[in-house]
Design a protein that fits this description.
heterodimer; A: 266 residues; mainly alpha; two-stranded antiparallel sheet; 2 strands; B: 282 residues; alpha/beta; Rossmann fold; six-stranded mixed β-sheet; 10 helices; globular
């Protein structure tokens, strides 16, 4: 059952967003996130919401999946917008005990709700359309300028790659150890929380021991394949910017201009 | 021509006891040569030092006594260590622990990427290596969804993409089922026959060694005997006295000959066994 697990939430399809250069997608995401927090009136917010809606449609991923990713965060949205509702200043429209709702409060809570929803939607559209390996690849290349600051960008990316590679392996192993312990009479499904956590110890200890053994062997295998760190390394997959990447950047720039204009003139 | 040569190789490690450090001898005075293009099997049971020996061939371990040469390169020369590893690739026992990337073709590309090969050349090598082990159609799969035999063939392709002259396999089939074992052994045999790659196969399964050119038997860190499979496995008594098996077919016929059936020569595999048995019976 754990074998079928897919990492991240990548949804294979051949939408336009899937075919964008992952580096561009990461940059676009950062751009849109900044933009979301730079909206100071409803018109600007409208522009951003339109952009987010466009990315959701262009991703060719079922909207159902987006809604599913919203489900986890719905409580946060509700609480923050409720709090904002009561924290407005100015003339109360409605007042009961210490709670007062003002026009300002309503405005704020709509802002917050739309901003959070846009954030989740647009980040999901990145993870839905980009495979984890493409993502680590893009991050490695984007982080490259940071190596001037003595940050080991290659090592960080290598760690991410290996972590991604070993998640399914270790999950499978956890499954196996749990079955083995159950076969010896371990009880993991009953009792209160503390008892259940305690019951996990006989699973975690062998898992850690084996993870270290794997790490040792992997290091040896990497040495066998002449791994010497990032220096002098080449990559098989070269990332190429194509026309559609520039179009995507152009769309973002138009949106930025739109938001700025809305903020100033409307 | 000797490709790998060990001269009086010995290796020990210190076992840290509570009171004293006692050195444990793993290899004692092993002098061995691997010829270019040959298919050599090293057999022995657990603790015979065969695995330790294999790790000396590409400078993962360095000798504590004696020397190891790979085409006249001394493996203890630290400046040439990557030249040695480029010539001699090592495939380990557990396929799960030697794959680095989560896509098959990217894993195979890992070696050549480390060597700084140009991108188009890496592409060519990866495709070629995957075709050589019959895994080309799986190039975009995730390794954890493949069978053990398939994973091990990916590991072999990963070494192959570095274009080594010699591949050393340290018990590559120990964790595989019979089907996976057969896949790996025939892939390796093919590489040896068709591409002339020198192969050193470390194993404790005697049936895998019958296709080799030469067999070296290790016991307690020493070379017990060596020769062609036929020469080695005809010494059933010697092997038995060191708790080593012979291939099943050889075993059967040696038991029969102990009961008074005469054979001209002991068979190595099932096919030969059928032949000699039918000669005796008809």
């Amino acid at each position: 059952m754990m074998r079928d697990i897919t990492l991240g939430q990548y949804y294979p399809s051949n939408g336009v967003l899937h075919r964008l250069d992952p580096r561009i997608k990461v940059l676009l995401l950062i751009g849109v996130i900044v933009l979301i927090f730079c909206t100071f009136n409803f018109y600007a917010l409208g522009v951003v919401a339109l952009l987010v809606a466009a990315s959701v449609i262009l991703s060719k991923v079922p909207v159902k999946l987006y809604l599913k990713s919203m489900k986890a965060i719905i409580l946060v949205i509700l609480i923050t917008s409720l709090l904002n509702l009561f924290y407005g200043t100015g003339e109360p429209i409605f007042q009961w005990w210490i709670f007062k709702v003002t026009a300002d409060g309503i405005k704020n809570s709509i802002y917050v709700a739309v901003r959070i929803i846009s954030l989740v939607m647009v980040s999901s559209s990145l993870t839905f359309t980009t495979s984890p390996t493409d993502l680590t690849d893009a991050l490695e290349r984007l982080m490259k300028p940071l190596s001037v600051l003595k940050i080991k960008t290659h090592e960080i990316a290598m760690m991410m790659t290996i972590a991604l590679r070993f998640v399914p392996t270790l999950l499978e192993e956890t499954d196996k150890i749990m079955s083995a312990q159950k076969a010896r009479g371990a009880d993991m499904e009953s009792g209160n929380l503390i008892r259940r956590i305690k019951a996990l110890i006989p699973v975690l200890v062998p898992l850690f021991v084996s993870a270290f053994r794997r790490a040792y062997e992997l290091a040896m295998a990497m040495e066998c394949r002449c791994y010497q760190g990032g220096e002098g390394r080449t990559r098989m997959k070269q990332l190429h910017m194509s026309a559609r990447d520039f179009v995507a950047l152009g769309v973002l720039l138009v949106a930025v201009a739109g938001v700025v204009l809305c903020n100033i003139f409307l | 021509m000797d490709f790998i040569r060990t001269e009086h190789l010995s290796f020990y490690y210190e076992q840290e006891d509570e009171q004293q450090n006692t050195p444990i001898d793993v290899l004692r005075d092993v002098s061995l040569s691997v010829k270019k293009g040959e298919f050599l099997a090293v057999i022995g049971h657990n603790g015979s030092g065969k695995s330790t020996l294999s790790k000396h061939f590409n400078a993962i371990l360095l000798p504590t006594g004696g020397k190891v040469f790979v085409e006249e390169l001394d493996t203890s020369d630290e400046d040439r260590i990557y030249d040695v590893r480029r010539k001699v690739g090592l495939v380990l026992q557990n396929p799960d622990n030697q794959l680095v990337a989560s896509i098959v073709e990217e894993d195979v590309a890992f070696g050549p990427e480390n060597l700084g090969v140009a991108p188009e050349e890496i592409r060519r090598r990866v495709d070629e290596a995957l075709k050589a082990v019959d895994m080309y159609e799986y190039r975009l799969h995730a390794p954890h969804k493949l069978s053990g035999g398939q994973k091990q063939r990916i590991a072999i392709a990963g070494i192959l993409a570095m274009e080594p002259d010699c591949i050393v396999l340290d018990e590559p089939t120990a964790m595989l089922d019979p089907k996976g074992r057969e896949e790996v052994i025939s892939a390796v045999t093919k590489l040896n026959r068709e591409r002339g790659i020198t192969v050193v196969l470390i194993t404790h399964n005697m049936d895998e060694t019958t296709r080799c050119d030469r067999v070296v038997v290790m016991d307690k860190g020493r070379i017990l005997t060596e020769g062609t499979p036929r020469e080695v496995f005809s010494q059933v008594q010697l092997l038995r006295s060191h708790r080593l098996d012979v291939p099943q077919a050889t075993e059967l016929c040696s038991m029969l000959s102990a009961c008074g059936v005469d054979f001209l020569q002991l068979p190595l595999d099932t096919e030969e066994c059928v032949k000699v048995l039918s000669e005796v019976l008809l």
